[in-house]
Amino acid sequence: QVLLVASGGGLVQAGGSLRLSCAASGRSFSNYFMGWFRRAPGQEREFVAAVNWSDGRIYYADSVKGRFTISRDNAKNTLFLQMNSLRPEDTAVYSCAAGGVVNSGGLAAVDYWGQGTQVTVSS
């Protein structure tokens, strides 16, 4: 059984930082891109960042470039999202995912989704 378990969300003031983790298990992800999406209340799901599990190629949404950093620990099968300089508009449920391709819209062909973790940024 493939599991992606996200954690690390919480409440933070604007300008603060949070680090999300996504523990992956149940299969090898060497042929996948792993990434993060977010969904704000009343909004559609938005791609945030992705990394190629094998070669480390990284992709970011324009809205988070320079503030968020995606990384992975292959040995521990864990994905991270370091979020700095947080803004109220970053408030959303953040979910990790494993997909087969990254295109102009971000991570796509998603085969596996993790549950979300709430990030709330107060002004």
Describe the structure.
With 123 residues, this protein is mostly beta strands. It has no helices and ten strands. It has strands at residues 3-7, 10-13, 18-25, 33-39, 46-52, 58-60, 68-73, 78-83, 92-103, 106-122. The chain has a six-stranded mixed β-sheet with strand order 2-10-9-4-5-6, with no helix packed on it. A four-stranded antiparallel β-sheet has the order 1-3-8-7, with no helix packed on it. β7 and β8 (78-83) form a beta hairpin. The model has no long low-confidence stretch (mean pLDDT 96).
Q: What distinguishing features does this structure have?
A:
123 residues; mainly beta; 6-stranded mixed sheet; 4-stranded antiparallel sheet; 10 strands; 0% helix
Describe the secondary-structure layout.
Layout: E1 3-7, E2 10-13, E3 18-25, E4 33-39, E5 46-52, E6 58-60, E7 68-73, E8 78-83, E9 92-103, E10 106-122
Parallel strand pairs: 2-10
Antiparallel strand pairs: 1-3, 3-8, 4-5, 4-9, 5-6, 7-8, 9-10
Care to give the gist of this entry?
The protein has 123 residues and is mainly beta. The chain is 0% helix and 61% strand. The radius of gyration is 13 Å and the shape is globular.
C-alpha Rg, in Å? 13 Å
| Overall residue-averaged pLDDT value | 96
The outline comes out as: globular
Number of strands: 10
**Helix count, per DSSP?**
0
Task: Describe the sheet with the most strands.
Answer: 6 strands, mixed
Question: Segments where pLDDT lies below 50 for 5+ residues?
Answer: none
Structural class based on helices, strands and sheet pairing: mainly beta
Kindly state the percentage of residues in helix.
Answer: under 10%
Ends: how far apart?
Answer: 40 Å
Strand content: over 45%
Strand numbers in spatial order across the main sheet: 2-10-9-4-5-6
User: What is the H/E string?
Assistant: EEEEEEEEEE
